[in-house]
Amino acid sequence: MASDHTRSAILAAAERLYADRGFGDVTLRDIVAEAGVNLAAVNYHFGSKDELIAELFVTRSIATNRERLRELKAAEENGGGRAPIEVILRALVGPTLRGCLGPENQRSTAARFMIRASIESVPPIRRIKNREIDHLRKFAGAMRRSLPDRSDVDIYWGLNFALAMAHHTIRESERLTKLSEGKCDLDDVEDVVARVVSVATMALTAGRTETNAPSKMAAR
Amino acid sequence: MASDHTRSAILAAAERLYADRGFGDVTLRDIVAEAGVNLAAVNYHFGSKDELIAELFVTRSIATNRERLRELKAAEENGGGRAPIEVILRALVGPTLRGCLGPENQRSTAARFMIRASIESVPPIRRIKNREIDHLRKFAGAMRRSLPDRSDVDIYWGLNFALAMAHHTIRESERLTKLSEGKCDLDDVEDVVARVVSVATMALTAGRTETNAPSKMAAR
DNA sequence: GATAGTTTCATACAAGTGTTTGAATTGCAA
DNA sequence: TTGCAATTCAAACACTTGTATGAAACTATC
Fold this sequence. Notes:
The structure is a homodimer. By secondary structure, chain A is mainly alpha-helical. The first copy, chain A, has helices at 5-21, 28-35, 40-46, 49-78, 85-100, 109-120, 123-128, 131-146, 152-171, 173-179, 189-205. Helix content of chain A is 71%, strand content 0%. At the A-B interface, helix 8, helix 9, helix 10 and helix 11 of A face helix 8, helix 9, helix 10 and helix 11 of B.
């Protein structure tokens, strides 16, 4: 019934600021200034700063996970319950990469916020974050169905490495650009997605299960 | 000339606390309590909190980089100026992984501190961190020598992915353990190193330069 | 248009931060 | 021992943080 204007203005401002500057250096006063509302409004509408962050994170979690699962489900139905591993991986890392890379003006605040959340891990978020494991398990399941003769250990490592490459590339995109003197084009998002998916696919399908063969012996 | 006892006690305590709890929630008062010295000692010996952090980071940066370069140099001299790519990658990710993973009691505080620094990126560290690019460039050079017919872009992407897998695995080691229900053994450090090196090697040596072929077209 | 409930606002509060101060203590040379 | 510099210490300072308060302004129902 209420106007809700102030409430959503706070949410939008907070998400923008957190996405840009991280949780560490954004104060309530920054948020209300950006939103153009009174300081007390945050506590009035959300109870506390932590609850504001939590609401932001929960909302975005649900949305992101739904998007990823939508792609995954479509892929599996398309293939009669068994999707190609590349498509699964693309559903896993594609949405996030697309949201966080690409030309400055078309980056999604939501995705950048989620990356921050996955990096800085402030207490209110950490408490919620455990549910994400269940979400990842669905992808692990799809990967297992796609590669039935691959061991569970390999599946999990492949999943881990796929997320690693996607997240790290986002986090360190500036450094990679500088290091490569612009040769690596982070604005060409689909190329980045293709690279990540390609390497992760190789990791998951390479050779025989030489998985644990060269380990302990190869120690220096 | 001076006793130096207080000074090094502060350094040790600060490193321990930062490694364990991150920069966000460690106050000067925590540090001096852990070190058993007076609050004013930090400002007396280091000037400011930021300078303390900076000194810590510079010291560890130099040490870590020296260790990595030592392995790299040895490998290249061993091969007459051209080291196998696996060995280069091992020199890149090995020291960090070994310091941050493995049984709890033998993890290096220094390495865990450096990981924190590479993640949280507090201002005094961010200012220094740009030099790391020069350090990575040395690895890029060695990789180029090892794979002379590989394009620069591919080299940089391979380097990026190798660091991605190493760092992400460290940062999310708990989650991977939980997700895999213990099937992924993060305590077997040499296995982890072997996996990361293996995947990164594949990324760098795979097939033809189909690197930028499937990119823009594949966009949905 | 009066009234009750909701929302906004300026302001104050308590707690915590890094830093400074100036007096005490220490260590060491003359 | 005396004297002087280096170091330690308790205390306070200035500032920022999230939160609470109570009055004002608004909104909608009767």
